User: Fold these one by one.
Assistant:
Number 1:
Amino acid sequence: MLLWSEEARENGVSGGDLPLAESWWGGANSVRMSEDEKVLKDPVHGYIYVHDPVVWDLINTREMQRLRRIRQLGATYFAYPGGDHSRFSHSLGVYEVVRQMIGAFDRNNYPWPHEYDRLALAAGLLHDIGHAPFSHALEKLMEVRHERWSVAIIRDPSTEVHQVLEAASPGLSEEVAAIIDKSSPNRLIVSMVSGQLDADRLDYLMRDSIATGVDYGTFDLARIIRVLQPRGDRLVVRKSGIHTVEAYLLARYFMYWQVYFHSVSRAGEVLLHALLVRAKSLIARGREPALTQPALRAFLKGRVSLTQYLRLDDSALFNAFSLWQDGDDPVLKDLSSRFLDRRLFKEAPWPASRDPRLDDVKKLVVELGYDPDYYCLVDETGTIYYDYYLGNGQEPNSESAIWLYDKDNGEMTEVSSVSKPIQAIAADHRPVRRLYVPEEVFRHGRFDKILEDG
């Protein structure tokens, strides 16, 4: 199947009447921009500009449009009602940040090979195309990171995304996939899309902050883009931009604790995980609950094909939960109702030192009529996919560090080595664990006694 331009659609021209999206530019390797500029209004960037017809065709593929139906922040809307924006808007935002980066390189006369424009823009746009329903919340259940699905979607000849990329330039789909799985030799573009100061983080921190109303998650995005500089195979920061970067890293830190690891946000995801684990268990035992989407059966069995995976979105799960709340299994029925009606579990601090008392909590849970496998759950910071910067001493390698560049002497310095605020953030790195139980357990006098003794 071949895609065609939006202008052709508006003029009533079918895909069969227009020979590929290549009609928009001068050849497979040329990157001539369309005269028909597309402008999208956006709460973060003001406007998102699309000049390349290939990018526009990618936006209009069914795989990209699916992201409209997947929440960016999973179950965080339980804590922040405004935090129900989509992966689609974030993906557009990442594309726009990459576009602005390239523009800033030009304005500052930094060396940037424009033959890589389309590769960088497409990789930014498509970096999250493989997300599961409720975004990161289901990755633990699948035991597969979304990047692997993103790469599979881009490489599969049956997808519209693959067809658009290959119609633009044979081999482009593999180049984009290699950027996303970080196997590409083009480390500069990899760092632009997936690094400590990448377009992904720069967009989602601002977008999530604006959506949730958490003001201290914002920072001077325009200034950060101005102080970024391509140098060799990585992005670096001009030395004069250190305070702007500090503000950005502090925003990451605050968002981590106040949004991504907020106790209510985590309560929603803990409940969602328990709910799906129960459904998975029932299917494995031949007691399959009602399913409105056949692909959900394959997903819960752990044998989902790419075609089936692309059928799944938040609405597929909500429809299933709506059925399950009136089903026969009492555990699945209760968990589904709790999730739909926001009757979340209560949380208590649960450091590792309290683990010897966990069996006592489980006994109380059983006495109150609950199955501890689903109603007595420990959650910790290591189970979430957001993080904050730890400095070069704790980051896995030099590629993942943030480097300051001094043009006067040509030296590069890792930012935490000269920044007390970032050193303080890194020193604060600690695992945090919480125990989630039903409110009846939480309010019970014996539970208070367990916490006191622990």
Number 2:
Amino acid sequence: MNIKQICDCWILISIFCLSGCRTENTKENLLIGSLTEMVPKNLQASNLFDGVTFTALETTDSCLIGNIDQIKKRNNCFYVQADRRDLLVFDHKGSFVRRIGQIGHGPGEYAILSDFEVDEKNIYLMGLKKIYVYTLAGDFEHEIPLTINARSLRFAGENILTFVLGEKGENVVCVIDRKGHVREGVLKMNETLRLARPLPLVNWGDHKLLFHQGYSNDLLMYDAQSGQFMPMRILDHHRAMSIQENEKMEREGREINKYPGFIFDGLSSSATLLAFGCVENGEKVRLYVADEAKRTYISFPLDRLIDDVTFTSGFFLNYFMLCNSSEERFISYIEPYVLEEALSSTAAKADSEFYPLLWEIIDSIKSEESNPIIVEFKFNM
């Protein structure tokens, strides 16, 4: 996998300064440094993955998907955000259910869709200084006006945690209530953030959320139960890029992927696991998967991974590009034409249990312009 491709695809965000928080190098605020490593037996995807399923999304003129921004699985349905404007819902079998909202300026209409969340009763769409609330059936209920220019949202107990794209000196991470009132804000924006896309907030366990600060070793953790923020680091390693080094490189216009040490990105999670990529010396790419409940983690170099599940080179690239989340598993996707080409060139591996299944899926797709195939999987920890 080309390291420049990965770094170009990963979401770039600038650096912040957290005031009033501890930064001591203690075991309590280390993500991976406080866990025990489990070495994978082999690096075949069929050994590393568990519970793999494939779902071909229905393709019609009314549900043709453009450039995918993110995919979430909630309430046994797939919610697909595309082109910063569309939110489409498919059931667990891939059948198209409905489109949520529409572009416009009337009640329940939005000019842009930057993020969304779903709970047991409602769908929340993040627009321009508004959150639009719909029922699961797609009926518009009400708007939540905002005084901040929020770009992403995650539920945090009774409140909502947001990423804010504001002016220099304003808080970047804010806690708001369900009426849109700002309860607390932390992390001051710097000048370079205005050129970056907002990095999503990632769930970590039952009641914690993580905010990754740039490509650095630094995280901000929010505990929804206690309502407290705490700084964290990913690794306890002197070559892991600090937030200060990341900020200096941004300020000097130097390429982050040439940092002579460890940089991090691609943070995502399932219900129980957290995964992210680590690039060493701008060359070696490793994937880390952490299980906080078991206090363990695995890591492995991506260039040594043998994909005998999808047989494609773009599977993990799509995984890193998207802000995906699922109720139980990780999510990626494959374009049907890419999968067909990969299967046609790997006939020697036809003994794989996934090979005939994938051909069956390809043969069932009738349209030349087809929606992607969703791949769900767990890591075998």
Number 3:
Amino acid sequence: MDTSFYPYFLHNRAISAAESEVVMQRCVGVWKQWIIAFVGRLSSQSVAMLASASLGLLMAGQGFAQSAGAARNAAASARAAASAPQPAASAPVQPPVLVVATTATAVALPFVNSESADAVAAEIAAAQRTRRHAQFTVAGMQSRMYLPPTRGIRAVRTQPTAVILLGGTDGQLIMADLTGPQLAEAGYLSLGLHYHDGWGGSKKLTGIDIEPFFEAVKWLGEQKGVQRVVVLGESRGAEAAILTGLAAARADRAQPPAPHKLAGIVAYVPSAYVQPGVGPTPNDLVPSWRFRGQNFPTLPIFKMPTFSSENLLKAIAAAPKADIDAAELPVEAVNVPMLVLGADADRIWPSGEFSRRIAARAKANGKDANLRVVVYPQSGHRLLGTGPSAPSQTYRWDGGSFTANYGGTEAGNQAARDAAWEELLCFLAQCTPKPGN
């Protein structure tokens, strides 16, 4: 199965009835396209024979979906009728479960050394031939490349802009595995970077160097057909994306300037500050990012009774102003256009308010001309992607699990995700932004 076409089945996570309906409709649409493409190569007699069989197949497929929906409704009605005489408290809705592979079991295929041009070309050719993702070791990081389809009825024209994907607290390729295939369908090559092991791994989000991200930008820009590179980060990855823009700006000022093709930064549900790293215990304040051997100052606010968006804002307001100012992300130092997408119903941290603070800092420094900030009032933290998204998610991996409350509602999240995805594609295409908030 070409998993880039079935993003809802990645990681074997549970899907809602609405998601099932979307997938069924897409599958039926592809069956129709396959039949049309195949019929064009047949004789008129064969066409007549195949048309009858194909029509029956499509009707059967759609009938199956309708029957399944009717069966679900009937079963639900029966359960409701059975429980009517003795009403009981309804059980809490269980969040979908995402099984997270650890570093040791994440990928069966090897990671190709990116320093060998011949090996890179061979790996990309093999990936395109077998319709899989290409895998490399780039700047010391295991990386996965998501290639636009170039053959068959799903073939698209590969865009000259490529995207680097940086996940959040997990630091692995979970976000990239979900977002990369969706970008590929839109014609954008992307590269996900596994830069630390947030859950159960040995490499924590502590003292992560920014230089390898910039090296990955330069490497991706050297690949065939790539004219521009955009770094897209989500949550903690948005911090890394903005700081990568800072590294590129300093490279521009170097003598001689270091060539690169960085053309934009996208920050999904970002922080406006450098957040603390992952220490031995939740109350340990450790540096998360560093550049040229120097740690970036971090917020001194991890020690709070209960971590929430509200408590985080209160802690920032109560902390010494000099410490808060030092930890604020220097967005004004980024020389390339930026797209910032926040969410006001975010329960992980207040990315909507953080996005406004990013805009305020850029404006105060006269650097808001190339900045686009959009905040979605009804969205939770899972703003990246398209389609439905549950307000909470249970993650399981070898040796542990936890349930994250991302916020928002399924309907609010879906509307915001689809709108934000349009903003992303518009930004990638360097088109004029739509009038907005």
Number 4:
Amino acid sequence: MRSYFYLKSRKTLTTSVMVNITHDSKHVQLATGIVVEVKKHWKPDKKHPYRGEVLPGFPTLRSQLLDIQKKIETVCNEFIAIESNLTKPKREFEADLKASLILVLRRKKDIQEIKKAEEIKREKSFLEHFEAFIKDRETNPKYGEGIIKIYRTCYNQLVEYSKLKKITLTFEAMDEKFFNSFTKYLSKYKVLRKNEDGETIEITKQRQKSAIGKAIKTLVTFLNNCYSKKNGEKITDFRHDPKVFEVWKSPEDISFALDSSQIDTLEKLELNDRLSRVRDLFVIQISTGLRVSDLLQLQPENFDWKKEIITVYMIKSKLESLVQIPISPRLKRILSKYENNIITGKNKNGKFLEDQKYNEALKEIGKIASEIDPSFKVIILVMKQYIDVNDMKQEYIPLYKLLSSHVARRSFITSAIRSGVNDELIKMVSGHKKDSKSFTSYVKFTNTEAVDVMKQASFLQ
């Protein structure tokens, strides 16, 4: 074994001192951690610095290098003395020897790399497993942006909860005590609002039990994923108690669908550029049954204007399916306003419209529509339940305040059924499986419609 020092670069003012170790045609090169001034401290075309008598004080540098050389010699001799090392392939021999030398030289950068490698090897924490769970599903086309957003919200809530309580979450801690504490933490949240004087103030609001239930449902999905063997090796042997982790649901389904006259009202509204684009996106959703995430994926090649068909591969939906949607006259009218007959969810700054902003804008549009069409002002009784309140809380809300992007998909399916289209044909266009259990949740008829149909039933005549 032999070794010598050299400069990493002679073209710069300062540079690192490197060391080269050679043994039986095997080479290892690494930095010593020492930095010198090239012209002042190092002899031209030499493998060592100037002697002390030429540059006072440099016996320190020379002694440092000699000390390093002795350490290298000791490590190499011990490494070579191990018989199994000598039989290793060249690359493996060099990598293992370098790792041994790094530990001796204690270079800061390399020590950090070693620590990083150790961090990777150590067992992941509960929250790290949750983060990995989210990243894994982000790469899976079965899980859309909406689902990933729900996962991310739950993760952030767990992070904030652990910081507030100053605890480290573990799988074993997922018991009744945690459930009660976490749901109580979720029951209230803070928002910023402006008061009458225009000042921004922080107010505390109550979160509905159904919203808390969504967080618990996400947590249960994660826990089941970690315990299940279906996804490879089990992450934990601990199984939470399903009876404890109760998933609270909304006390009453308040979803609804718009009828054709309400859709016509929306289409004819005179709006500013921002609301006009949102309204057009919403009407296109109603005309296609597409979710926003699928709608914004559309490109010119998805449209066959001769056959009047849109072909969509729902990459970001729960179903990996190819669907074909007819281009209706209403859809033609809306798309004709835009370049290449394509509408995007981007604003003037090139940023995509967020779900929350989209739904807020729909409520603005609904309020404007209510001045023309009184049906948007119809008061709906909404039952809400909060964790700190034993009884249901009744709220009377005008229909336009309940508008959201998902109303469009329900309106598409309900309108198709109203028009007499067969359920199976609707499923083919909407992308639902034939045995889909969720399909019926999209069908929203009114009590008036039920009475009118029953009046005309032949068996009652």
